[in-house]
Please model this.
Amino acid sequence: MNGNVLNDGDTITVIKDLKVKGSSSVLKQGTKVKNIRLINGDHDIDCKISGFGAMKLKSEFIKKI
Model:
């Protein structure tokens, strides 16, 4: 999260290449994700990424833009 407070509807950027479970695809560093939703749990960000679909991310791998 890099010290910035996240809110529902924010736009974020992925700061590290991430392997997608159950797929051979990789979510590339620098990918922008719009309109996030915060949830409780291990993966605390729920979002839709074009080309990947619905996904949950951990806040440690993103930064707010």
Observations:
- The chain has a mean pLDDT of 91.
- The longest strand covers residues 45-49.
- The beta strands are 12-14, 18-19, 26-27, 32-33, 37-38, 45-49, 53-57, 62-64.
- The chain is about 0% helix and 35% strand.
